[in-house]
Amino acid sequence: MPQTLEPIRKTKIAQTLDGANTEKKQSFVASVLFEPLLSDFRIIFERDPAARNWLEVLFCYPGFHALCLHRLAHWLHLRQVAFVPRLISHLGRFLTGIEIHPGAEIGKGVFIDHGMGVVIGETAIVGDYTLIYQGVTLGGTGKETGKRHPTLGKNVVVGAGAKVLGNIHIGDRVRVGAGSVVLRNVPADCTVVGIPGRNISRKQSVSLSPLEHNKLPDVEASVIRSLLERIEQLEQQVQTLKEGRGATAPLGVKHVVARGVAEGNYL
Description:
This protein has 267 residues and is an alpha/beta fold.
């Protein structure tokens, strides 16, 4: 009797293994190829007014091509396949001008617009629906090991030529101005501009469209404006002091300023 049941048991085991392999293949198609790439494909029509039909997006958008190759390379990288993931990444860089390390984690709905010169490091994490323009670098700051690249939250906009460096966290809905260099953590719903990047909280920025990344505050202009206003106030005080002394004992500017400081007029 046991000899009779043995072939049946082997058959059931084989069917179970075949079913498991089928599920793995379906999981691979769903998680790596279908769902994320479909989100990447759809987001292009929402965020690029130049996208007119699916043929243009499918064949003429290097950002989409780079993400397709990266998702395959990342899947192989997670399974510790040697050499092949880096080769796919290198081919993607050659074809698109976008370099994404196979170890980088890219969320769904990410749009790399134009993309030439974009570099994303090995331990970088890019959140869902992030918008990245050309010339952006998500890189490290040295030869440290472990997590050494930035983590971007959801719905982040990184302007053209911006550099986000080091193991820092960029919160959700953050806007990084073009040409900025970000070296510190940025809370959610903030705008970062300048070199090095400075955080400016703007609640109204949440209601703006992700494409309106040109509406950024000019910090340097605000500082220069306040300095000019202060200079005008000092000039008025100097003029008042000169008029008060009259023509009897004219004073030099240095003496007037020194006297004003002593009297507390400039504090």
